[in-house]
Amino acid sequence: MTNDSLRSDGSRAAALERLFKVTTDVITVMTGDGRFKDFNPAFENSLYWSLAELQGKPMMDLVHHGDRASTLAALAKLREGMASVSFENRYRAKDGSYMRFAWTTQFSGDCFFAIGRQIPRSTLAARRGPGAEDTSETAILAKRVMYEGDPMSGEIRYRENITDLLGYAPEHLAGGFERWLERIHPEDRAAYQKTVAESLALKQPFHRDYRLIRQDGSTVRVQEVGQFRFDEHGKVIGVVGHVMPCVGRGAQTESERTAAYYRGLAEAALIMSSTRSLNAIHQIITDQARLIIGAHQAVTSITVGPDWAQAIQALSLSDK
Fold first, then answer.
1. pTM confidence score
2. Cα separations in angstroms, 157 against 154, 175, 221
3. Phi/psi at 221 (nearest 5 deg)?
4. How far is the first Cα of the chain from the last one, in angstroms, to the nearest whole number?
5. Helix (H, G, I), strand (E, B) or coil at 129
6. What's the CATH superfamily of 132-277?
7. Chain centroid offset of residue 281 CA
8. Backbone angles phi, psi at 56, to 5 degrees
9. Which of 28, 179, 200, 306 has its Cα between 20 and 30 A from that of 148?
10. 137 CB-contact burial (10 Å; exposed 0-12 / middle 13-18 / buried 19+)
């Protein structure tokens, strides 16, 4: 390994460590048998437990007894090979009170990696009229459709709730990428194909916004977050991600829109561990920052090394 690669790895590790410490989302790392291995300052600030108090202790000891079965079921899906799961549960704080969190969790290297956002006790549900659609972040996250693809067969496998989103059963979307492309609104297809090509060429995660055509002919705007997987030779070996109704529309409040976009940033951080360079991490942060503030272009620059000798720039542009 060269000195340059060592410096790059060190800078990458420092960037990830900084993000782990400053994010307001709760991040936990647990062993394969569900014991706390590490968590970030946001966890301690929310629940008042220190790492010394919980390290090596079973996570389920803090989960509300009414949520333990659903939590165990979600973790079992990850052990069975599902790329990512989203669920809610209540955690016991040190003072004995319970706080509800919405989690996005992955299983990698015999460890569970989870990002959680605390759900306020007072929600919009009490203020909505009878029959009003629930557009809260939690409700939208529940509608997300997880998928995974196999480049060898060309098939993409969707979870069963694809029917709720589009009206099609998973088997009706068999046929891989081309079949999915047929469901995209004609005016959005060219931009979609462009972002797919860019994601493959740059080997970086993607976050795109487009319209899909439902079985009944109506349209729904969605956002898609995911990542292609590559082997050590740079050959694509798979794709994982999710599609869900697009945030920032309808009856959502400004705080809910902001929270949802920050969740997108947090989810990008989860998959940063598979990126290969500091440049790739920097590009992810730039793309997500542009999405969060709703800008059409964003440019960021960082310096590497104490003498400011090397500068790395990243540019992010919307289709417009």
1. 0.43
2. 10, 10, 21
3. -85, 130
4. 42
5. coil
6. PAS domain (3.30.450.20)
7. 15
8. 90, -5
9. 28
10. buried
